[in-house]
Amino acid sequence: MVHISRICFRKYGNFVDNLRLYVRGGTGGMALPRLGGHGGNGGNVWVVATNNMTLKRIKDKYPLKRFVGGSGANSSVRALKGEKGKDEEILAPIGITVTSDDGRILEGELNAEGDRVLVAKGGSGGTPCSSFEPKKGQVKHIRLDLKLIADLGLVGFPNAGKSSLLTALSNATPQIASYAFTTLRPEIGKVAYPDYKQISIADLPGLIEGAHLNRGMGHKFLKHVERTKQLLFVVDVGGFQLASKTPRRSAFEAVQLLTKKELELYKEELVSKPSLLVVNKMDLPEADQMLEELKEQLQNPEEFTNLLPDDMIPKNFITFRHVVPISALTGFGVDHLKSCIRLSLDEYAAMETGATHQKKLQALRQQSHECFRNEDKVSLSSGVGGTRRATS
Question: Both 314 and 215 in a single domain?
Answer without folding.
Answer: yes
